[in-house]
């Protein structure tokens, strides 16, 4: 039986396969992203039903800027639409929105929508939705190193006092716990620069299902699989 202790507190997802989903149907890549946005809505909802408190979604990577201009513009527009459509539900379910990544690189309209919804939901704690936007794991660690260097230069920190907690405290969302489970859809066996620091001991679940086909049922299956894993953290089993 699955008990509460087997429910991951934090699930992070690499939402991959929108393009392939569209191609299989003779549709445009953007239509794939549109259907993918429906999966986002379904999974945010499923978190509440499953009792998952933190959800982090990889929505746009630092590398994704290299895609054709029209695709990038379409993704940005979808993001604004998503924020507008989702806002009501975030309030209803007391879900706090956060964002991690180089948001300063996003179009101004996206930045202002994000700022508005982040501020409006900042007091909530029933659920936590984090969007990784213009996000790269290496870039996040570089940023942390720079912030730490400033503290050393200002005399507020000694180099010998820098430890793992110092690095973690200077990441984008230090108050979010590390993911217990990382899901990647569409079968690729790679991390693609996602949460490099935080995934250190996460369980990995990779499914061939393409992101637009990944809904509550597939999410539930991933959580069941997580419940069957034994997380040893380098130790040996107790029995
Ligand atoms: C994931 O789907 C969405 C983003 C990276 C924004 P893809 O667009 O990468 O889909 P595939 O990998 O081409 O199928
Ligand atoms: C990872 O998917 C990034 C996001 C889901 C936002 P990609 O499709 O960009 O990753 P690669 O290119 O297959 O590594
Ligand atoms: Mg992809």
What does this structure look like?
This protein has one domain: Undecaprenyl pyrophosphate synthetase. Helix 4 links the parallel strand 3 and strand 4 (127-135). It is of the alpha/beta class. It is built from seven helices and six strands, in the order βααβαβαβααββα. Helix content is 43%, strand content 15%. The chain has a six-stranded parallel sheet with strand order 3-4-2-1-5-6, sandwiched between helices. The radius of gyration is 18 Å and the shape is globular. The model has no long low-confidence stretch (mean pLDDT 96). The two termini are 19 Å apart. Helix 3 runs parallel beside helix 4 (108-120).
**What share of the residues does DSSP label as strand, in percent?**
15-25%
Q: Any idea of the CATH class?
A: Alpha Beta
Termini separation (Å)?
Answer: 19 Å
Q: Share of helix among residues?
A: 40-55%
Mass-distribution shape: globular
User: Regions with pLDDT < 50 over 5+ consecutive residues?
Assistant: none
> Helix segment count?
7
Number of strands: 6
Radius of gyration: 18 Å
Assign the structural class, choosing from mainly alpha, mainly beta, alpha/beta, alpha+beta, or little secondary structure: alpha/beta
Number of domains: 1
- Mean pLDDT, as a whole number? 96
Strand line-up of the largest beta sheet:
3-4-2-1-5-6
**Which quaternary structure do these chains form?**
single chain
- Series of H and E elements: EHHEHEHEHHEEH
CATH superfamily membership: Decaprenyl diphosphate synthase-like
Cofactors and ligands? 3-methylbut-3-enyl trihydrogen diphosphate, magnesium ion
CATH topology name, in short, is: Undecaprenyl pyrophosphate synthetase
Q: What CATH architecture would you give?
A: 3-Layer(aba) Sandwich
| Main sheet specs | 6 strands, parallel
């Amino acid at each position: 039986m699955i008990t509460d202790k087997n429910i991951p507190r934090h699930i992070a997802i690499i939402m991959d396969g929108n393009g392939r989903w569209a191609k299989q149907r003779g549709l445009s890549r953007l239509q794939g992203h549109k259907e993918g946005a429906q999966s986002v809505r379904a999974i945010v909802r499923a978190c509440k039903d499953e009792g998952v408190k933190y959800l982090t979604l990889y929505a746009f990577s630092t590398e994704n800027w290299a895609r054709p201009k029209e695709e990038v513009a379409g993704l940005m527009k979808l993001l604004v639409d998503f924020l507008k459509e989702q806002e009501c539900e975030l309030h209803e379910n007391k879900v706090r929105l956060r964002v991690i990544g180089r948001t300063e690189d996003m179009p101004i309209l996206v930045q202002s929508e994000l700022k508005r919804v982040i501020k409006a939901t900042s007091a909530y704690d029933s659920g936590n939705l984090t969007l990784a936007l213009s996000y790269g794991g290496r870039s996040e660690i570089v940023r942390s190193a720079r912030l730490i260097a400033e503290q050393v230069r200002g005399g507020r920190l000694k180099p010998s006092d820098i430890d793992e907690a110092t690095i973690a405290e200077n990441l984008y969302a230090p108050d979010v716990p590390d993911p217990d489970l990382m899901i990647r859809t569409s079968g690729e066996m790679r991390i693609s620069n996602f949460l490099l620091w935080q995934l250190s001991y996460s369980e990995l679940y990779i499914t061939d299902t393409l992101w637009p086909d990944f809904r509550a049922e597939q999410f539930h299956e991933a959580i069941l699989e997580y419940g069957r894993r034994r997380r040893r953290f380098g130790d040996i089993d107790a029995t």
